[in-house]
Every structure is written in structure tokens, then in C-alpha cells.
Design a protein that fits this description.
The complex is a heterodimer.
Chain A: E1 8-16, H1 21-31, E2 36-42, E3 50-58, H2 63-72, E4 76-81, H3 88-103
Antiparallel strand pairs in A: 1-3, 1-4, 2-3
Chain B: E1 6-9, H1 10-20, E2 25-29, H2 35-42, E3 47-50, H3 54-68, E4 72-76, H4 80-94, E5 99-105, H5 121-125, E6 131-134, H6 141-153, E7 160-165, H7 166-170, E8 172-175, H8 192-204, E9 208-212, H9 214-218, H10 222-232, E10 236-238, E11 253-256, H11 263-271, E12 274-278, H12 284-287, E13 298-303, E14 317-320, H13 323-332, H14 340-353, H15 366-376, E15 382-385, H16 389-397, E16 406-407, H17 418-428, E17 434-439, H18 450-455, E18 460-466, H19 471-480, H20 496-502, E19 506-509, H21 516-525, E20 530-535
Parallel strand pairs in B: 2-3, 2-4, 4-5, 5-7, 6-7, 9-10, 9-12, 10-11, 12-13, 13-14, 15-16, 15-17, 17-18, 18-20, 19-20
Antiparallel strand pairs in B: 1-8
Helix pairs in contact in B: 1-2, 3-4, 3-17, 10-13, 11-14, 15-16
The chains are: A alpha+beta, B alpha/beta.
Chain lengths: 104, 558
Amino acid sequence: MNTDHVGKTVLELKVKNHPGVMSHVCGMFARRAYNVEGILCLPPVDESEYSRIWLLVDVGEKLDQVIRQTRKLMDVVEVNQHPSLNHTVFVKLEDLFINSAGAE
Amino acid sequence: MSQAVERLNGAQIVMRFIERQGIERVAGIPGGAALPLYDALSESSIEHILTRHEQGAGFLAQGMARVTGKLAVCMASSGPGATNLVTAIADAYMDSIPVLAITAQVPQALIGTDAFQECDTFGLMLPITKHNWMVRSVEELFEVMPEAIRLAMSGRPGPVSVDIPKDVQMQEMDITVWPDPVVADTHPQAQPEQIQTMLGMLAKAKRPVLMVGGGVIHSNCSEDLLRFAEQQQLPTVASFMGLGAMPTTHPLFLSMLGMHGSRATNMVLEECDLLIGAGVRFDDRATGKISEFCPNAAIIHVDVDASELGKLKTPVLAMQADIGSVLRAYLVDSQVIDRGDWLARVDELKRGFGWPDVGDCNVFHPHGLITRLGQLVGSESNVFTDVGQHQMWTAQLFPFSRPRQWSSSGGLGTMGFGLPAAIGAALAQPDRPVLCVSGDGSIMMNVQELDTAVEHSLNVKIVIMNNQNLGMVRQQQALFYGERFCAINNRRPVDFAALAQAMGACGVDLGKVEDPDAALAEALSTPGPCLINVPICEQEMVFPMVPPGAANIEMIGE
């Protein structure tokens, strides 16, 4: 079964697709002492100049602050807190990597 | 219609962008990877100020930016040149100072090979700038340079850095059209309904206080602030960065708040029922223990940076707006309010718990010296400090009368800031003499820049409050570590006057003259760079003081 994701949320970032973006995003979370439990990046589709990053993070009291800080990053175009509570992105990833690997 | 085509290399393009932006001088030090940049600089209209250390170049740029409010530029070569800039850039980030750092990088083919003078400048600058870039082709300069300049100047100002590999500096391209010089983004403006809410809250408040910070200085709205405070009859306190936003002699002005604010100021904040935080970020040195800061007050927080709102203190009303726009919108339909009872109470506290009377202190007492300097140095002068006890004494007692008169390393607290930043101010505003109050510890951290001041015959007066100790560390060891003094004193006095003379500056030691008052006055009025050593008793402490981690109301001393 899936890992317990209670108290977690997913931030969906639309970012400019060029070198250094991941450093800026991950560096900001690290220096603001905000833990990131999971990261998923997908390359741009349809030759778009944007990529997407999904971050699995705690719903802590500093969440609003860290979202505001993320919005300030130059390469981040959009930040959305994923509305659904079941975090489909990371649940499916776990299915793919953990559950299917175990079935082999 | 055909336009003239220019073929320029990357370095020339960088200089052209800076020139077109109206930058007149750049501080820096050349080096191997930066040679094309310096070649291009030599044929531009830009004056280069050669510092003696790259950290000096970074602070020199800060000094220019702090007194003018305009973007300033510093340059360094790759590797150690870039790492030496780091402290000054981190300092600019903490105090929101618009600085563009241009660093050279080894050629792209060598990146990642541990090449000579290679280091990850991109990685180093990343957490201490608003944004930073490594430029990978000459074409990219046309995106990066305008964007970097725009970002440094827009919203909450701050440093940006651009790292340029040597091959990109030398790569050529044809240019027909240049983009217009960059204009800062329009600030977010006050919302009318929020102004109405603020009006309502102010009308109901019995004991309101206005807290002004560096945002008011950046917003250039001190006159509006004064009118607002006077109309609303608001007792006003300043954060360290907000000093000068209101003349310190104004009847409504209290003092700096927080760790070394006056007892009266922190007591007023304890009693206030409404606090308007104008361009402040509720730094821990200002608020003390944050949960006990202004315990009885509703908070209105105005800041241009959305991420500051609610970061440390939850406001009842949060406005992401240029503080100037809020004040001007407010002034349109507000009435003069009478707050006689509250102002009487504030005056009572001010009389009972304000600064001690310094009437009979001589110049060898910190209070006496700062008071004397305040009398001798006119309001047209710019005042800089380093970091430590001398800085707090200056912040407490110097009579600041206008915005941007006061510059000091606030957020990062960098010893070594004072002298190079003062040099930057003297270059940017040659008509204004510069006073740099320093300590015997701080001055040694960038004393080499005295040579830069002499080279340009700058009107910089350095006053060293010399207690032969790292005084602020000594103070904390005395108060909180059982007087177990450690690593605060090299036990070997330096002859600072002789040091200044060795570099070609005027050097005076007030401890060795017959009439120290006359010698101080004479040294301050003699043109050119001058260092004035003033012996101070090592046991003097900055009081009052909030112990680290304590609430502001738990002040100790005097």
C-alpha cells in the first residue's frame, strides 16, 4: 500500500526551463529550513519554455511563508497548492517504483 | 531604412549596458578571467575605482547605492575575486541595497575541470542575491543584463549577480538596436478599501505607534511620513535601518527600538494598542522575543515585499504596497487628530526613561564623543559606521536629520563595512563630507581601503573609538559569560595615527594631544582623508540592552 501522506501537500510549480532553476528552488527550501519530502520534475511538453516541478511538503505553519518565498523566485512563474488531498502524483510514483518493483 | 551595425564582443556589450543605464563609476579589481571586461571598460566612459580588496569594491558600490538610492556596480575576476565579493553582496541582500555584481568566470570549456581560479560563483551568489545568472552566450547578455538591472531596482531593491565566462566576454555579435535603459517596475499601490480600514483603525486607537524601517528610506517618502505622523499625532520609533526617516529631534520621534533602543521607546511599545509597521521586517534585534513584542497592539503592516507580511508577526491589516503610496493616499482625506493623553504619557516615559544626560561627558566617553561629533559634523554630512559598540552608540545618539544620511551594516552586521562604503559615498556625493565612525576591531577588517581614499583625495573622516577590544563581544562576555574574556584583545596597541600617515592620510591621536576638543574639530574640518584615534575605556558598555532572546521590556543597564 501507499506511504501515509497525512499532513502533506503538493506544490505545483511552473518554472522557466533553463539551467540553474532546480538550484534556485531547492536552495530556497533548504535555507528557509523547509523540508521537501518528494520532488518530481517533468521536461517541457510541446517545446514550451516552461517545465513543471511537483514538491511534496509538510503542511506546517510556515507553509504560507514558503509559498510566498517561492513566488519571489525569478524562474518560478506560478505556484499552486494542489487542491486534492490524495496527492495523486506521488502516490502513482510510489506505485510505479515501489509496488511494481516488489512484484517483479 | 538600414541601421548602422556594430560588431562588439560580450565584454563591450556589458560595458555598454552599464553606460546606457547611466552608471558613471564601477568599483573592482581586475584579474585573468576579467581581462576582456577591463579592456572594454578602458574604452568606455566609465570611471573605474580600483579598490585594494574585492570586498572593498562590494562595499564601495554599496556606499554609492545607499546615499543615492540608485543602482551601483562592482566587478571582480573569477575564483578569489568572486569569493571576496560574497560578504559585501550578502550584506547588500540583508539591507536591500541595489547592487549589480559582475564577475568573470573561466572559459566555458574549462568549467568543471578545477581550472585555475575557477569556483562555483553561481552557487555562491545564489542564496545571497535576488537572482543570479551565468551567461552562456553573448546573445544571452541581451536578456540577462536588462533583467538583472531591472530586478535590482524593482520592488524591494537588492543585489543581483552576473557571472560571465571569459569566452562569452570575447564572443562577438552584430548589434543594430539597443534596448532602452531599464526603468524600475511600478510599485504595488495602496488599495482604497485598505486605506479606509486603516483610517478606521487609527480613529479608534487610543495608543498608536508608528514604526518606520528601511522601506521608508527606499521609498523616498520621508516628507509624506512626517506629514502623516504629524496629522495623526503618532509617536514614532525607527528600526536601525529606518534612522533618518524622521529627524531625531522631532517632538514625535522617540528613538531606535529594540536591543539597544531607549528604555522609554520599548516601554511605549509595550503600552501601544496599534502598531503601524511601515517598511519594516520585524528583525529580531528590533523586536526582541517576538511573541512578547507589542503584546497589546493590533498590527498594520505595510511592505512592498509580500513575503514579509505575516512572516514573523501576524498583522490585522497587511498591505503589499509602496509605503509612499499608502501615506499619500491616506493624507488626501485625513484630519489632524488630537492624541493629547497618549502623547503626554509618551512624554512622561521619555523624560523618565530616555537617554541619559550626556552634558558633562568628554570626548573620551562614548556618549560625549558621539554628541560632540553630532555638533561638529553638519547635517549635510553622510554618516557611516562599522559594526559593534561604536555603531550602537552612534545609532543611539547621533542627531540624524534626513533620510540616507545614515548608512550602516544592519542585517548582516559586517565589520569592515564602514570605510569602503564611506569611500563610495564620498565618490558619489563629493559635496557631502563623510564621517565614518569605526572601532579598533572593525577598521582592521578593511583598513587597506584607506589607500583608496588617499588616491582619490576623498573627504572621509574616520573616527576610531579605540577600546583595544572587540568591545561588543567583550560586553556580552562580561554580562552573560561571567567575565570569562576570550579572544577579544590582541594586547598590543596599534598606532592608528601612524598607520594612516603611512598610507598618506592625515592621522591624529586624541590621546596624545593637549587639547583633544580642538584637535578633533580641526581634524574634522581639514579637507581630505583623515583618521582620528580616540581612546575609550574598555569597560564602557552599550546600555540599555535587551539580553539576547529576552523580551524588549526586560532591558538591563542604566
